[in-house]
Design a protein that fits this description.
Blueprint lengths: L9 H13 L12 H8 L3 H13 L3 E3 L5 E3 L17 E2 L14 H5 L14 H11 L9 E5 L2 H12 L5 E6 L3 H9 L3 E8 L2 E2 L1 H9 L4 E4 L13 H12 L5 E5 L21 E6 L11 E5 L1 H9 L10 H11 L2 H27 L12 E5 L3 H10 L2 E2 L1 E2 L12 E5 L6 H14 L15
Parallel strand pairs: 3-13, 5-6, 5-8, 8-9, 9-10
Antiparallel strand pairs: 1-2, 4-11, 6-7, 10-11, 12-15, 14-15
Length: 446
């Protein structure tokens, strides 16, 4: 298909292509001409075409696929966490906590109903005092300020908006938490991938991203989603050393699993960092519908957040703040959170062991999910598991890189009983081609 593109400036080229895409003249999957070809045809600089294609990518109209070229995007919904709607299959790809392990908020809500009027402080004083102690561990900064937002994604969106401009680059772990990736893309920023290994974000990857000009870095210090990796002390120290050379890059530390994590916290925020924020969400241990996260940050960053969270606009409900404080300071609730943490770790370890016994070596990592490497394409395994009654999540949507190294599944298995664990492990191993036979013992036939 020959595509004749018009325009002499980046905005004119982007506008021409946008109009044709929106009219349906260029359907999803259409391969656009190379930058070199368009530049030669129009007699413009190649950077002009690069800028035009970038504008289209930021608008979600095209996708850059490396050596595969730039194609018109399929305008389907971006992958998100949660249950798949209208499925009769057993869904083990949800990313959800166990609802039976989420504390009952009824009593806490009853103590949280004092009316709050315009002009009052946006942060509940009790929650702020408690959060200041909770958020300060392993932070080399005494001048931290506390902000409350409607969840971690809301915090990340606001942090980036007050520090960056459209088209600024943000370093993201690769593979990446879906919500962070979605937030960066919809905000009009450029996502720069930083590889993740068994110890978390890699030093060489971060160094390359910083040299490429990223203005912000989002790092998960433990229970990385989807891989379950946590930073070792040595890796965190090396990352801090690299970041120290870029003190005014905004470093966002997303400690999303916090009270449930079985791994120690090793922070990437060092004493040299001038722009930083640590986010802790309540969604994993108090439930996703809590929609509350606490952010500790340097004063300048906190001031930028405060401008976007003022009385009369978008502060977080004080009823929700006081309910949260009542729950996290309740001894019985904290015992329940600790029991939930042990449950998630034990069930993930049991399933990882079951797969390893069947010829699919898996590390349990930390977090709500398991990251399962496969010897065959993930789509093949997914389709076979669907025939056996299971709905799983492929790893591809979590990657920024157009050509991921390896095939993976991300599984949420903490609510499986012993029988279901054995059944899924058998079915998965057979789908991956490493287990044969009809028995359920995990024996691998020669």
């Amino acid at each position: 298909m020959t595509i004749d593109i018009a325009g002499r400036s980046a905005s004119a080229i982007a506008a021409d292509l946008r109009e044709r895409i929106e009219r349906g003249e260029l359907p999803p999957g259409t391969l656009l001409p190379s930058v070199r070809a368009v530049a030669a045809d129009l007699g413009v600089n190649r950077n002009t075409v690069v800028a035009a294609y970038r504008q289209l990518a930021q608008a979600g109209l095209v996708e850059a696929r490396g050596r595969s070229g730039t194609r018109v995007a399929d305008r389907t919904a971006v992958a998100q966490e949660g249950y798949a709607p209208d499925t009769v299959l057993r869904d083990v790809g949800t990313g959800n906590p166990d609802p039976a392990l989420i504390p009952d908020p009824t009593a806490a809500l009853a103590r949280s109903a004092r009316p709050v009027l315009y002009g009052e402080p946006v942060i509940d004083p009790g929650l702020e005092a408690w959060a200041r102690g909770w958020m300060s561990d392993h932070l080399p900064h005494d001048d931290l300020l506390i902000t409350v937002t409607s969840g971690a994604s809301d915090a990340i969106e606001r942090l980036l908006a007050q520090a960056l401009q459209r088209d600024d680059a943000v370093a993201l772990e690769d593979p990446c938490f879906l919500s962070a990736l979605h937030t960066v893309r919809t905000g009009g920023y450029r996502a720069v991938p930083v590889a993740v290994d068994a110890e978390g974000m890699t030093v060489d990857g971060l160094r390359a991203a910083l040299k490429a000009g990223v203005r912000a870095v989002i790092c998960t210090p433990r229970a990385h989603n989807p891989t379950g990796a946590s930073l070792s002390a040595e890796r965190a120290a090396a990352l801090r050393d690299v970041l120290a050379e870029y003190p005014y890059v905004l470093v966002i530390e997303d400690d999303h699993f916090s009270l449930l994590s079985r791994a120690p916290l090793h922070s990437v925020i060092g004493p040299a960092q001038r722009r930083w924020a640590r986010i802790r969400s309540m969604s994993k241990f108090l439930g996703p519908d809590t929609c509350l996260a606490v952010t500790a940050s340097d004063p300048d960053t906190a001031d930028g957040l405060a401008l976007r969270l003022t009385p009369g606009t978008t502060w977080v409900s004080h009823i929700l703040q006081r309910m949260t404080l009542a729950l996290v300071t309740d001894d019985a609730v904290r015992v329940g959170i600790e029991a939930a943490a042990e449950h998630y770790a034990a069930r993930n370890a049991a399933f990882a062991a079951a797969l390893t016994e069947r010829g699919l070596p898996v590390s349990p990592g930390d977090g709500l999910n398991l990251w399962v490497p496969l010897p065959v394409p993930a789509a093949v395994v997914r389709e076979e598991l669907m025939r056996r009654g299971w709905l799983v999540r492929e790893g591809d949507p979590f990657f920024l890189s157009p050509d991921p190294a390896g095939a993976f599944l991300r599984l949420t298995v903490h609510d499986l009983d012993a029988t279901s664990t054995e059944a899924l492990a058998d079915d998965l191993a057979r789908a991956a081609g490493v287990l044969r036979g009809s028995g359920r013992s995990g024996r691998i036939d020669a």
